[in-house]
Amino acid sequence: MIPLKRIAQDDGEVQMNRLTDDTACKRRLTYTIRNNIQEPTFEYSLAIRFCRQPFIRIMEKAVNKNRSFMFSATYFPKLGYFIDAINGVRGFYNVNKTWWAFLKAPDTMLPVGVSSYYPADGDHIIFNFTQSSGH
Ligand code: B12
Questions:
Q1: 98-135 in b/e burial notation, b at 16+ Cβ within 10 A?
Q2: Pairing of strands 71-76, 42-50
Q3: pTM score
Q4: Is the minimum distance from the CB of 99 to ligand 1 under 6 angstroms?
Q5: Dihedrals φ, ψ of 63, to 5°?
Q6: How confident is the model at residue 96 (pLDDT cuts 50, 70, 90)?
Q7: What residues make up the domain containing 108?
Q8: CATH number for position 108
């Protein structure tokens, strides 16, 4: 059994990690949530340090830093989590074609969802509240 090491991260969060993990967590990204289409509009960004992990884990870290990043999601077989709402703003695709698009800045639609996308160092990831048919 690999021993556990207690690690205090720069944001004060304390985690138990296996020594074999990338405990340095040296990668950094910028995470932006943007709603330009519905009142109250908002745009917030956070700089986050991370290890190799799917983006949904980084969304959890963001919530721990700032409640504006709170989200809700639905788990689908094989595809993982679909993000329904962020910061209290919910997409109603079937009603008015609104949904949260998952982008790499400035405007590249990511080909997979938050459970499958492993961000790279220096990424700028955007959740943009969108009104459009399909993707
Ligand atoms: C319609 C559709 C959408 C609609 C769904 C809304 C709706 N109520 O219809 C909208 C436009 C919102 C959408 C969004 C996204 N989608 Co889409 N979508 C589809 C599509 C074309 C059909 C799904 C469908 O209706 N199936 C039939 C119904 C009966 O089955 P179902 O299981 O109930 O379908 C649901 C899920 O598929 C879910 N859903 C749709 N997209 C996604 C994506 C993810 C990651 C998850 C977990 C669930 C999910 O919504 C459907 C309706 O409830 C599929 C391609 C395909 N042909 O399957 C892509 C597809 C599932 N989507 C895909 C992607 C990548 C996305 C996005 C991540 C794109 C982005 N970068 O923003 C976003 C999700 C972002 C988020 N908020 O989490 C990929 C998933 C690939 C993968 N392995 O992860 C697919 C396979 C298309 C592709 N080949 O690239 N999508």
A1: bbbbbbbeeeeebeebbbebebeeebebbbbbbeeeee
A2: unpaired
A3: 0.90
A4: yes
A5: -65, -40
A6: very high
A7: 4-131
A8: 2.170.130.30
